[in-house]
Write a structure and sequence with these properties.
Elements lengths: L1 H23 L8 H36 L7 H11 L5 E6 L5 E6 L19 E4 L5 E11 L2 E10 L11 E6 L5 E5 L6 H18 L13 E5 L6 E9 L3 E2 L2 E2 L8 E9 L8 H41 L13 H17 L7 H5 L20 H25 L4 H4 L2 H35 L5 H15 L2 E7 L5 E6 L13 E4 L9 E7 L11 E7 L1 H8 L6 E5 L5 E4 L12 H9 L6 E5 L6 E7 L13 E7 L6 H46 L14 H15 L30
Antiparallel strand pairs: 1-2, 1-5, 3-4, 4-5, 6-7, 6-12, 8-9, 9-12, 10-11, 13-14, 13-17, 15-16, 16-17, 18-19, 18-22, 20-21, 21-22
Helix pairs in contact: 1-5, 1-14, 2-10, 3-10, 5-6, 5-8, 5-15, 6-14, 8-14, 14-15
Length: about 750
């Protein structure tokens, strides 16, 4: 009995203290957490895009070197020409003879080979950053190949830039090296000393985190975080940084050796208004402490003290002390047990027989006791617990009512920067999906120049190697001019024959269990008439590959939809070709008819949210012809804004108060009130003449002690022929003067 009654005031006092701390303190610290986390996620998106672009370049060049290698010698000029037809991303390419270092061929701009010592390079050396004669940072990519018994080095270079990262008018994006030097930047104010200093600080912080075990926390496989710059009047600078990921332990990322860090900065107004309400916190804590004291005192007076006194009285009667009358409580089940004990005391002294009327007799000094049997039952301890529960429920209810009355309007608390960041990140995701599809088509275009369907075994090896290297395809195969499959690798083909001979990227179905996205690249057979003997390389993309691009932390629910707004992929689970679940977002999808993305703060009777839609750019690559869009939506309440954080704190203390009261009162009901009601029934039955029912204590506590004492009293009482319980169909029991003899004669 004592543990729940002791835990109730202690836990409620802790909740009151937490109320003062949570409701009374401010939830903001100059820059909202939502802005800081948003900048961190933008930097992470930039790091992922940069890593993907560099690794894709390395993979493409090494795959081309593997395809060109072999016993058949391909001229250096021919290799570079094929590369230029398939891939348009390199500014210049070259082939170098490794033993002598002699330049065999070059294409495009001059490759800065003089900045690299080509002697002693390992096989497939990692990419490197060099500064050319004009002072521009270039990315050099290498791949070794062997053909005709010669060792050659294939080299390509390109500018270092963040691919497809959308930058707002107030944002600055920088790429810095491990020493904190800025390599490339974009956005307003990117070349200022303040921006460079913040970028250097963020890069050093990323390098420090990169050596710790917490580098891969938060859904990003690399060091990332946020900083707050020094105050400048009423504005602050929010900084987000993310280092290029190290990659999986089993497959190290080629770009991780560069030691690059992406840093984003944005100037935002300082949040000067506090969100805490100390007066409300102190008032709520005082009311809760008063309720805790009142409820604890009431339970002590009505439950604990009467039960403990009954326990002493029952032990006295069980030991044979029948001199003093039983002190009968005034209320509830303790009063019923007390009246039954007094009736049993009289029976033990020989002053009364077993009868229900004996239990219902009022005690001395005119106290009125609850009756049994035909008498009117009065309120019990359950009523007391219900009243206490309602009293404790009033406090969390008032807190939640306060929460509803002070709920901030989203339009007043959500800064424009949050909606802009949602649009930028959605545009970046759409660009990554588009670039991934375009890169897949470029891979197929390269395969079409090197694969020879007349050699099935060699062609199958090339397809298998491409499946393993890229991981974006579920199946690869070569078909003839009629669409018949000549060589196949991977899963079962699902593209119709008529589509297999249409070069480009196409969505081949609009219904079914899984969307099918196919890319087709053509290669005419040399020496054959135009259109005759044509071969096509077909690749079908994995839906999981698209889902992996959509899965970005902090972006909310993201959908990839086709031109008719049917769902192709989603990061939250989806039904193929279904509708976007949020009706407000569906309306926004229909409203966006240009290539530029849009973002809105969606209101309504449901939870407000920040939503954005980003179509594919119609002028960039073959994937633009799909007409696809990326849509995202994020609930406002779970964005780290000070006003909503204060509301969550109020909700937290209200729920804690409700849980504490329900836990302690439920505990008291289970271990005291319900067993005491059973004891009261057994005590009344024993006083009414039931001598056959054995009383077993269920728990070793105060109520269990009452049961043991009643069992001792039962064993001391004379036996009767009464039925086991009062109110049975046989009527009232008939007392007898002997334990086993017949009743008295008339």
């Amino acid at each position: 009995m004592r543990p729940p009654l002791a835990a109730l005031p202690v836990l409620l006092a802790l909740v009151a203290g937490l109320t003062v701390f949570a409701v009374g303190s401010d939830a903001e610290r100059g820059v909202p957490e939502a802005v800081l986390s948003s900048q961190q996620h933008i930097a992470e998106d930039g790091a992922v895009a940069l890593q993907g672009a560099v690794d894709q370049s390395v993979t493409d060049l090494r795959a081309a070197a593997a395809d060109f290698g072999g016993s058949t010698s391909v001229p250096a000029d021919g290799m570079l020409t094929r590369l230029d037809r398939a891939y348009r991303k390199w500014r210049g390419t070259a082939v170098v003879d490794l033993p002598t270092g002699r330049l065999l061929a070059s294409h495009g701009e001059a490759v800065p080979l003089g900045k690299v010592d080509l002697r002693g390079l390992p096989a497939n050396p990692p990419p490197r950053l060099v500064r050319d004669d004009s002072g521009v940072i270039r990315l050099l990519v290498f791949a070794t190949l062997s053909q005709g018994g010669r060792q050659e080095l294939l080299v390509a270079f390109q500018s270092l830039k963040l691919p497809g990262i959308s930058v707002g008018r107030n944002h600055t994006l920088n790429v810095v090296d491990r020493d904190g030097a800025t390599l490339t930047s974009t956005g307003p104010g990117s070349g200022t000393d303040r921006a460079k200093a913040l970028a250097g600080t963020a890069a050093r912080e990323a390098q420090r985190k990169g050596t710790s075990d917490t580098a891969a926390a938060g859904g990003f496989d690399g060091p990332s975080g946020s900083l707050v710059g020094a105050a400048d009047g009423n504005t602050r600078t929010a900084v987000g940084y993310a280092g290029v990921a190290r990659g999986l332990a089993t497959k190290q990322s080629p770009s991780s050796a560069l030691g690059l860090t992406v840093v984003t900065t944005v100037r935002t107004e300082r949040h000067g208004a506090g969100t805490g309400d100390l007066r409300l916190a102190l008032l709520a804590a005082a009311v809760l402490l008063a309720l805790a004291a009142g409820v604890t005192a009431a339970l002590h007076m009505v439950v604990q003290r009467p039960v403990l006194r009954l326990r002493r009285e029952a032990r006295r009667l069980g030991s044979g002390d029948l001199t003093a009358p039983v002190h009968v409580p005034r209320f509830g089940e303790p009063a019923r047990v007390g009246a039954a004990l007094e009736a049993l005391r009289r029976q033990l002294r020989g002053r009364g027989g077993p009868s229900q009327e004996a239990v219902a007799q009022p005690p001395a000094k005119g106290r009125v006791l609850p009756g049994t049997g035909k008498g009117r039952r009065r309120l019990g301890l359950r009523t007391v617990l219900v009243v206490c529960a309602f009293a404790l429920l009033a406090w969390p209810a008032s807190m939640l009512l306060t929460l509803g009355s002070t709920w901030p309007h989203p339009a007043a608390v959500v800064p424009r920067l949050i909606t802009d960041d949602q649009r930028q990140r959605t545009e970046t995701t759409a660009d990554r999906v588009r670039r991934g599809i375009n890169d897949g088509y470029a891979d197929l275009a390269h395969l079409a120049t090197v694969i020879d369907a007349s050699r099935p075994q060699e062609a199958r090896e090339i397809l298998d190697r491409s499946l393993e290297q890229h991981g974006r395809y579920r199946s690869l195969y070569v078909v003839d001019g009629a669409g018949a499959i000549l060589v196949h690798a991977g899963g079962e083909p699902r593209t119709p024959k008529r589509v297999r001979i249409r070069p480009g990227v196409m969505q081949t179905n609009t219904s079914g269990k899984e969307p099918v996205l196919a890319a087709v690249a053509a290669r005419p057979v040399e020496g054959a008439p135009a259109g005759a003997g044509r071969r096509y390389v077909v690749g079908e993309f994995k839906v999981q590959y698209l889902v992996g691009i959509l899965s970005r932390p902090g972006l909310g629910s993201v959908w990839l939809v086709d031109s008719a707004h049917r769902v192709i992929a989603s990061n939250k689970g989806f039904v193929a070709f279904g509708r976007v679940s949020d009706g407000r977002l569906r309306a926004q999808l229909k409203a966006v008819r240009t290539t530029k993305g849009s973002a809105e703060l969606l209101l309504g009777w449901r939870n407000p949210a920040v939503a954005a839609v980003a179509p594919f750019n119609e002028k960039l690559g073959v994937a633009s012809a799909l007409g696809w869009k990326v849509a995202s939506i994020r609930p406002v309440f779970w964005i780290g804004l000070p006003e909503y954080e204060a509301q969550r704190r109020i909700m937290l203390v209200g729920l804690l108060g409700l849980t504490t009261g329900a836990l302690c009162l439920g505990w008291l009901h289970l271990v005291v009130v319900r067993p005491l009601r059973e004891i009261a029934q057994h005590a009344e039955a024993l006083a009414a003449g039931d001598r056959r029912t054995v009383l077993y204590p269920r728990y070793h506590d105060e109520v269990g002690s009452l049961a043991r004492s009643l069992e001792l009293i039962r064993q001391r009482l004379p036996r009767t022929d009464a039925p086991p319980a009062p109110g049975s169909p046989d009527g009232a029991p008939t007392p007898s003067t002997s334990p086993s003899g017949p009743g008295p004669r008339s």
